[in-house]
Design a protein that fits this description.
4 strands, 5% strand, Alpha-Beta Plaits, two-stranded antiparallel sheet, single chain, mainly alpha, two-stranded antiparallel ribbon, 268 residues, 14 helices, globular
């Protein structure tokens, strides 16, 4: 039996959850860590007040992952976010289980405006001495603790702190109960925000493949807009659909949903 593209994607996401998150944490345990939160994995702390170069010596795996993620996104699209990332994958899969009547549609909010405002605050606030929000609103931290709570008392304690409960509430509201399951990723992931810039830059080079819409075949039905988990598709002035490459995560869900076969992963 031939598996669909989305079935394969979900299987890869599950594999990512197994090898990156507690209680198994195959890859983190190889480097002496219990999860991808903290040294030597954290990609967010590289942009802390201590400085990129200084932190890269401690967070060497995170630095390597950043280089790989941004390189792939520039040349081929955001496959880490859509296929590998266990955090975004968890919330997307969780949203499929949540009852439809409880789903919250955040597509009316300008995701890039929120995302890059948060990124600016993430980088600038520590420089101004206001304090870091690196770990305060981190889905990597709270989901790692959630899975780690099965075997780790420390993780269970973190979950019942005020910060832990706030983070958990955000994961529920912006993840499991969000339409598409990716609102947290779309609003509050600084790495995803930078990754989106690399994806957008690469999309300008026509020989690089991206999710693209053939306007001559597009029937403007809007099914792709409803299907996109990160609200990266909108109507253009000529009533055809257009993809915002700074938000697109190359999940290919829209390709399957398009009845006119106007969407494909191809060169420009």
């Amino acid at each position: 039996m031939k598996l669909s593209v989305q079935t394969k994607r979900y299987l890869i996401i599950v594999l990512g959850i197994i090898i990156f998150l507690p209680p198994i944490s195959l890859i983190p345990s190889f480097f002496g860590s219990v999860s991808i939160c903290g040294a030597p994995f954290c990609m967010r702390m590289l942009f802390s007040t201590e400085g990129f170069i200084a932190m890269s010596k401690v967070l060497f795996v995170g630095l390597f992952m950043l280089i790989v993620i941004f390189t792939i996104s520039f040349f081929a699209g955001r496959f880490f976010c859509s296929y590998v990332c266990p955090i975004g994958g968890i919330t997307e899969l969780g949203s499929k289980i949540a009852p439809k009547k409880l789903k919250i549609n955040y597509s009316w909010i300008s995701a890039p405006a929120v995302r890059y405002s948060y990124l600016a605050a993430f980088i600038i606030l520590p420089v101004l001495g206001v304090g870091s929000i690196c770990c305060s609103y981190c889905n990597f931290s709270i989901i790692s603790s959630l899975f780690g709570s099965v075997t780790s008392p420390a993780s269970r304690i973190l979950l019942i702190t005020f910060g832990g409960m706030v983070n958990l509430a955000m994961i529920i509201l912006l993840g499991f109960l969000a339409a598409g399951g990716r609102a947290y990723c779309n609003f509050l992931c600084p790495i995803g925000a930078i990754d989106g810039i690399f994806n957008w830059l690469g999309s300008k080079i026509k020989k690089f493949k991206r999710i693209r819409i053939d306007k001559t075949n597009c029937g403007s039905c809007g099914q792709c807009i409803e299907a996109c988990p990160v609200w990266a598709i909108e109507k253009a002035e000529d009533n055809s659909m257009k993809i915002n490459q700074i938000s697109c995560i190359t999940c290919k869900i829209c390709i399957k949903k398009c009845p006119a076969k106007a969407i494909s992963y191809r060169k420009g």
